[in-house]
């Protein structure tokens, strides 16, 4: 007879949705604390109100904004809704406005967890799918970045998961169009484009790639045009977008922008600095190119969901670890896919946990440095340097171990295992 008291709790749909509700309530409670990363929060508030007061077509000429246009539509909508409560837009420092700014990434976190479960359901048990989704919903790093810090990376992660889900459903064109939108949401949307090509070039008809190219350009044009108009002809939106993305990239031309990766030791050093006659930027891109080449071979050899889950996790973590100009939060993009990859290789749970801990230290370092500068300055610089070197080394070890799973001599299981 089964001992009911010791039987594992089965995460059926009702319990899973209750877990998501608890994760949402927890985030909403955290919003009630008047805490945020003040630099980002003040920018988001200013952009939201500028979009309402100056209008979309005049926004970039008035505001010093380094974001491409896609997320600005969300900030414009938030500003419009807030204007119903504060018609003069004169109380921007209140808790309500800050909570409204934080709400999209919070809702995106919960939606991302739900989508992780939908991605996994065809490949593992319902219990496993729900369990891994809740791993992500209650990840303390995501809780901090969305509900306390107030950054929007959770929205980008949701879009990435959506593109991956569409790939699994064989909706290549829709996935490609979504990735096009992601690129003008934040430039980090480009991180997923190589996976689309590497995993699908040998599966899909040529006309689908043409449809993605034409449809993606058309979609980008339609989203960007209201911000810039056609003062220099039909190509104005593309030219203006390119200049904005290029200026943003050039502004952060450092080996590391507080990212504890292979360039952590060169934090805030210009990436045109040379090592053995080659500048850091070229070295980082070469490493990334080698990684993509290998993952392309891996995906060609192992053509099933398990391999794709492992490859996309490795690729997104690799984008954080290898190139220059990475910020501290860019590790987050790999966490959701690591949660999915645990279903392929349960032993990498400790890698997921490891990156959560190192990511929390990395984000906490930046939060302390800029949000509590006086306290930061009382701590000896040598201590912080020791933390940077140690955590960067741990991240390298975690990444190498994750990458090593793509070199397995035996193929990954097609049917995912129980946890």
Roughly what percent helix?
A: 55-70%
Measured on Cα atoms, how large is the radius of gyration?
A: 22 Å
Biggest sheet character: 2 strands, parallel
Category from helices, strands and their pairing: mainly alpha
The span between the termini is 23 Å
In one word, what is the shape?
Answer: globular
State the total count of DSSP E strands: 4
Strand order of the largest sheet: 1-4
Give start-end ranges of low-pLDDT stretches.
Answer: 1-7
Q: What is the mean pLDDT?
A: 91
Beta fraction of the residues?
Answer: under 5%
Q: Number of helix segments?
A: 18
Describe what this molecule looks like in 3D.
- The chain contains 18 helices and 4 strands.
- It starts with 12 loop residues before the first helix and ends in a 15-residue tail after the last helix.
- It has a two-stranded parallel ribbon. It has a two-stranded antiparallel sheet with strand order 2-3.
- With 419 residues, it is mostly helical.
- A hairpin with a 2-residue loop joins strand 2 (274-275) and strand 3.
- Helix 5 (95-120) runs antiparallel to helix 6, helix 8 (153-168) packs antiparallel against helix 9 (172-183) and helix 14 (305-321) runs antiparallel to helix 15.
């Amino acid at each position: 007879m089964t001992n009911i008291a010791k039987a594992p709790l089965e995460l059926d749909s009702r319990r899973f949705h209750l877990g998501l509700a608890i994760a949402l309530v927890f985030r909403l409670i955290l919003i009630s604390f008047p805490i945020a990363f003040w630099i980002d929060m003040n920018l988001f508030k200013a952009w939201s109100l500028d979009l309402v007061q100056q209008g979309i077509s005049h926004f970039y000429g008035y505001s010093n904004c380094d974001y491409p246009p896609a997320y600005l539509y969300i900030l414009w909508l938030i500003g419009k809704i807030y204007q119903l409560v504060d018609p003069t837009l004169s109380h921007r420092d209140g808790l309500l406005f800050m909570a409204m700014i934080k709400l999209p990434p919070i809702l995106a976190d919960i939606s991302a967890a739900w989508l992780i479960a939908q991605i996994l359901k065809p490949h593992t048990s319902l219990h496993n799918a729900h369990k891994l989704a809740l791993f992500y919903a209650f990840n303390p790093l995501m809780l901090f970045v969305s509900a306390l810090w107030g950054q929007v990376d959770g929205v980008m992660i949701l879009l990435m998961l959506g593109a991956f889900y569409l790939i699994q459903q064989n909706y290549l064109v829709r996935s490609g169009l979504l990735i096009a939108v992601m690129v003008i949401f934040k430039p980090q949307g480009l991180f997923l484009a190589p996976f689309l090509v590497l995993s699908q070039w040998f599966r899909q008809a040529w006309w689908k790639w043409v449809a993605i190219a034409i449809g993606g350009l058309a979609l980008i044009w339609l989203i960007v045009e209201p911000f810039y108009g056609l003062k220099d002809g039909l190509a104005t939106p593309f030219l203006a977008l390119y200049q904005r993305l290029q200026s943003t990239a050039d502004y952060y031309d450092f080996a590391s922008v507080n990212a504890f990766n292979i360039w952590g030791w060169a934090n805030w050093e210009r990436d045109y600095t040379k090592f053995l006659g080659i500048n850091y930027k070229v070295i980082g891109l070469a490493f990334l190119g080698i990684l993509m080449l290998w993952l392309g071979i891996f995906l060609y050899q192992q053509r099933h969901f398990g391999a794709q889950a492992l490859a996309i996790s490795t690729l997104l973590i690799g984008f954080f670890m290898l190139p220059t100009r990475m910020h501290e939060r860019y590790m987050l993009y790999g966490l959701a896919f690591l949660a999915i990859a645990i279903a392929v290789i349960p032993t990498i749970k400790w890698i997921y946990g490891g990156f959560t801990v190192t990511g929390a230290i990395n984000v906490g370092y930046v939060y302390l440095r800029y949000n509590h500068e006086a306290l930061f300055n009382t701590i000896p610089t040598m201590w912080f340097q020791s933390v940077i070197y140690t955590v960067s080394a741990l991240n390298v070890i975690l990444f190498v171990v994750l990458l090593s799973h793509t070199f397995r001599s035996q193929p990954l299981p097609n049917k995912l295992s129980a946890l």
